[in-house]
Amino acid sequence: MKQRKKLYLFGGLLFLAVLLTGCVQTDASGHPTGDGWVYNLLVRPMSAAIHFFANNLHLGYGLAIIVITLIVRLCILPLGLSQSKKMMLQQEKMQAIQPEMQRIQEKMRLAQTEEEKQKLTIAYGALMKENNISLFGGMGCLPLIIQMPFFTALYFSARYTPGIDQSVFLGFSLGKASMLFALIAMGAYFLQSYLSSLSVPKEQRKQMMMPMMVSPIMIGMMSFNAPAGVTLYWIIGGIFSCIQTLIINFYHKPRIKKQVAEQLKKNPPKTTIDVDEIIPQDMIDRHRERQERQQVQAQGQTEDHRRNAGKQRHRHDTHDVVNQNNEPTSDESTSNEDHRRNAGKQNHPH
User: What UniProt keywords are attached to this protein's entry (predicted)?
Assistant: First the structure.
């Protein structure tokens, strides 16, 4: 089951990579050649819109980039919200069946034959299917694939629209890299990652923090070398993502929790396969008792080791003190040496 899940994910990512490879064709220097369906359908209209807002409405190229970014993000917002709601719905359902999932996983660790492992794997899949839980946790590839060409088009429009590289926004040249803009962009995406982690259960939050930091770090690294016009687009996109995440966390999440609670009240989590027939529960209980005894023994051994180390240290310190007390002082050493010389003279024959 896990191998099949990985295969699906790899296939989806491979399809996405192939799809986006021909989106915008570029020359050796990285400039678009004017070919590719994304360039013709999206980049050209966005570039023309930037020109319109900058020159016809006299907003300037900086504000034009902001306006176009907001318009495009608002257009694809329903896709992002739909995907996030599905993911959150799946997470809430997963939390509801978590005890049963842990039972099956614990039995999998104790399975001794391939037949037992296979039966438990089937039981795990049946549990997910019967409770309408996706193996991907609601992470559908289709919404992401639909959004990616728009993000690609925004990037190329902000970078290669004629006139942007010669314009200034808030005192910063949009054609040159800006350290301040790069830091703001990275901070916006760090904030978005943090807000996203708040919707994740605490036990999973630590595991997901590292993958969630990848996007801010990549944005920061690219922003330090990218023109400020592109970084401005990333800043607005990051701020928009923060607002979108807040809407999901504080508006949609309470409603989804209530919806799942009502569904579970009517239809409690269920499974048609009795895993106790595969591996009896008393075997699990004995395994837990054995683990608890081992933990107690390990703690006792650690405590005994500490006590023995303390006793040895105490004896060593006491021995040093006794030796120091028995060592003669310099005056005593001189007196003893004189006494030995006098005794030697008396014993020497005249």
Answer: Cell membrane, Chaperone, Lipoprotein, Membrane, Palmitate, Protein transport, Signal, Transmembrane, Transmembrane helix, Transport
